[in-house]
Amino acid sequence: MAQNGGRLRLLAFESETVADIAAKPARRPGFHRSRGARLLVGLAGFIVSVLITFLGLLAITFFIGRLVPIDPVLAVVGDRAPRAVYEAARLQMGLDQPVPIQFIRYVASVLSGDLGTSVSTGKLVLDDLKRVFPATLEMATLGIIIGVLLGVPMGVYAASRRGSLVDQIIRVIGLLGYAVPAFWLGLVGLAVFYARLKWVAGPGRLDIFYDGLIDPVTGIVLIDSLLAGETDIFFNALWHLALPASVLGFFSLAYIARMTRSFMLDQLSQEYVTTARVKGVSERLVIWRHAFRPILVPLITVIGLSYAGLLEGSVMIETIFSWPGIGNYLTVALLNADMSAVLGATLVIGAVFIGINKISDVLYRVLDPRAR
Amino acid sequence: MTTMHSWLIDDSPASRLQARLGRLYRICGALSRNPLAAVGAIIILLLILTAIFAPLIATHDPLKQDLAQRLLPPGSIYWMGTDELGRDIWSRVVYGARITLVIVVLVAVLAAPAGLIIGAISGYFGGWIDRVLMGVTDIFLSMPKLILALALVAALGPGIENAIIAIAITSWPGYARIARAETLTFKNAEFIAAIRLQGASSLRVILGHVLPLCTSSMIVRVTLDMAGIILTAAGLGFIGLGAQPPLPEWGAMIARGRSFILDQWWVATMPGFAIIIVSLGFCFLGDGLRDVLDPKSGEQH
């Protein structure tokens, strides 16, 4: 654990979260406790830490909401409202209460699913978010699939041919993942692959004549179209998804390839690999059976982080692809100073982000025998 | 020259100045042997020079509109073409270097010391202070940075100052973590005990002896973070929450070129190249600096 966690910390300079997850020492509450009791203690501690993080997220959105220089009462009643109406609204919104009470009320209302009403759409923020979230999920999921399918083999290959031209190219791709603005890549992708080469479809989720033909069951068009047996729509949706998902996939594969390469180099320099080679194990088996297996566990953390990052990254590119997801919703809300919608979307993206990170944290602990 | 060299690499420097210059000399030497780091350093140097001498390098006034010359392709007069108001894109990119440099410097100046002090206090005192400070740090660390910055700017109001504040608020926790980890490694060292026995206050120990030892890993980390800061700032500008028109901020320039991407590709593409080159420069330099300043933690391979 310590050694592996150390490696993670050293290599994952951009993402302290990997390091933090990995470097957390496994709980050792004394030898006299049974394994079950230890697991329970660990579980309780974990749940507490998750709850505290979520509470922190709520505190941050609450305070951001209070930072807004616009008087929230005026936003509701309008600036021509008589004094009495203003006061009544103020009382009704609970703004006469002390800040801690307001915070508790805020938490209670969020927990009961009340995120307020969006000024720009005129609907409940929660309903809006339920409608737009599947689109983002669909894009990010396809992105992470592309990232894993390409990034992991690229990283392994680069590590096995260290110093070669291919290795150098993969290293540069890895760094480009930190240097290229996602929105720029999306625009250039549209100009090249849509306008010039016509390989992919343009903005939007479906061609206009397919719009509204299938009932949203899951909200994920790829699944809904298959459920309805409409393969035409399925392929049209895939055609539309190809470019935005590839753009997200690029950032994911850059990160995953970079991390995989580092993990593999670390394993390949271990003595047991030399032993295996001396025994005459073929290079292919050395790489895939001996060196690759131990890195699977830290890779899960990396993939989880990358997936969470894609949900965040989609905010930047959804407007470019007119993708009706949470990113587009957030951007429109931002420009209209629609704070309920902004905070609602922030809360949801933050919660999913934290959730994915915590899940990969759990997986790391469950799967790594040393962390158990 | 040789005497200079031997004075600089002297194993037992006679003065602080000699020791410091010697260290700098060795770092520069090691950096110049690492080709990527050298490229990165040159890019950053060019960025700084461009920002300083922008009026000399720009061929046109970055704000002057000339509707007769709008949306011209790159050519001998307008090296990167012109935008929809007939402004020269090359000159705007050049002046944009100033904005980018101001953003990264201010974010670094705000976030790094804040993180450094919080981390050092946390690590030095330990106990409840440590738990509370690191709890807050961990909460901030587990937030999605970009979304947090977006929401903050939305609340504070669009503008470059608020964008800088928002990015700084989202970037200090990483520095606090590093400073705490560094502080813990030498908190119980004998030289710290010796200073305390001489009666130095906690403040003095932290400011005078703990923080200076954190700086090298901090420099590495800040350099590596610069690319992310540039991308976030450009993203805020792109959405319309960062630098406001007519400021030639690169992200905002890409946003304006969005409508012309299919026919006048250069309007949106050119500022993007500037962002990529500068971000890559910081990545290269950061990687190289890490190998030199912090050899333990670099990729030894």
UniProtKB/TrEMBL annotation, chain A:
<keyword id="KW-1003">Cell membrane</keyword>
<dbReference type="InterPro" id="IPR035906">
    <property type="entry name" value="MetI-like_sf"/>
</dbReference>
<feature type="transmembrane region" description="Helical">
    <location>
        <begin position="291"/>
        <end position="310"/>
    </location>
</feature>
<protein>
    <submittedName>
        <fullName>Peptide ABC transporter permease</fullName>
    </submittedName>
</protein>
<feature type="transmembrane region" description="Helical">
    <location>
        <begin position="237"/>
        <end position="257"/>
    </location>
</feature>
<keyword id="KW-0472">Membrane</keyword>
<dbReference type="InterPro" id="IPR045621">
    <property type="entry name" value="BPD_transp_1_N"/>
</dbReference>
<keyword id="KW-0812">Transmembrane</keyword>
<feature type="transmembrane region" description="Helical">
    <location>
        <begin position="139"/>
        <end position="160"/>
    </location>
</feature>
<dbReference type="Pfam" id="PF00528">
    <property type="entry name" value="BPD_transp_1"/>
</dbReference>
<dbReference type="GO" id="GO:0071916">
    <property type="term" value="F:dipeptide transmembrane transporter activity"/>
</dbReference>
<dbReference type="InterPro" id="IPR000515">
    <property type="entry name" value="MetI-like"/>
</dbReference>
<feature type="transmembrane region" description="Helical">
    <location>
        <begin position="172"/>
        <end position="195"/>
    </location>
</feature>
<keyword id="KW-0813">Transport</keyword>
<comment type="similarity">
    <text>Belongs to the binding-protein-dependent transport system permease family.</text>
</comment>
<feature type="transmembrane region" description="Helical">
    <location>
        <begin position="37"/>
        <end position="64"/>
    </location>
</feature>
<feature type="domain" description="ABC transmembrane type-1">
    <location>
        <begin position="133"/>
        <end position="360"/>
    </location>
</feature>
<dbReference type="Pfam" id="PF19300">
    <property type="entry name" value="BPD_transp_1_N"/>
</dbReference>
<keyword id="KW-1133">Transmembrane helix</keyword>
<dbReference type="GO" id="GO:0005886">
    <property type="term" value="C:plasma membrane"/>
</dbReference>
<feature type="transmembrane region" description="Helical">
    <location>
        <begin position="330"/>
        <end position="356"/>
    </location>
</feature>
UniProtKB/TrEMBL annotation, chain B:
<dbReference type="Pfam" id="PF00528">
    <property type="entry name" value="BPD_transp_1"/>
</dbReference>
<keyword id="KW-1003">Cell membrane</keyword>
<feature type="domain" description="ABC transmembrane type-1">
    <location>
        <begin position="97"/>
        <end position="286"/>
    </location>
</feature>
<protein>
    <submittedName>
        <fullName>D-ala-D-ala transporter subunit</fullName>
    </submittedName>
</protein>
<keyword id="KW-0653">Protein transport</keyword>
<comment type="similarity">
    <text>Belongs to the binding-protein-dependent transport system permease family.</text>
</comment>
<feature type="transmembrane region" description="Helical">
    <location>
        <begin position="146"/>
        <end position="171"/>
    </location>
</feature>
<dbReference type="GO" id="GO:0015031">
    <property type="term" value="P:protein transport"/>
</dbReference>
<dbReference type="InterPro" id="IPR050366">
    <property type="entry name" value="BP-dependent_transpt_permease"/>
</dbReference>
<dbReference type="InterPro" id="IPR035906">
    <property type="entry name" value="MetI-like_sf"/>
</dbReference>
<dbReference type="InterPro" id="IPR000515">
    <property type="entry name" value="MetI-like"/>
</dbReference>
<dbReference type="GO" id="GO:0005886">
    <property type="term" value="C:plasma membrane"/>
</dbReference>
<dbReference type="GO" id="GO:0015833">
    <property type="term" value="P:peptide transport"/>
</dbReference>
<feature type="transmembrane region" description="Helical">
    <location>
        <begin position="265"/>
        <end position="286"/>
    </location>
</feature>
<keyword id="KW-0812">Transmembrane</keyword>
<dbReference type="GO" id="GO:0055085">
    <property type="term" value="P:transmembrane transport"/>
</dbReference>
<keyword id="KW-0472">Membrane</keyword>
<keyword id="KW-1133">Transmembrane helix</keyword>
<keyword id="KW-0813">Transport</keyword>
<keyword id="KW-0571">Peptide transport</keyword>
<feature type="transmembrane region" description="Helical">
    <location>
        <begin position="36"/>
        <end position="58"/>
    </location>
</feature>
<feature type="transmembrane region" description="Helical">
    <location>
        <begin position="99"/>
        <end position="125"/>
    </location>
</feature>
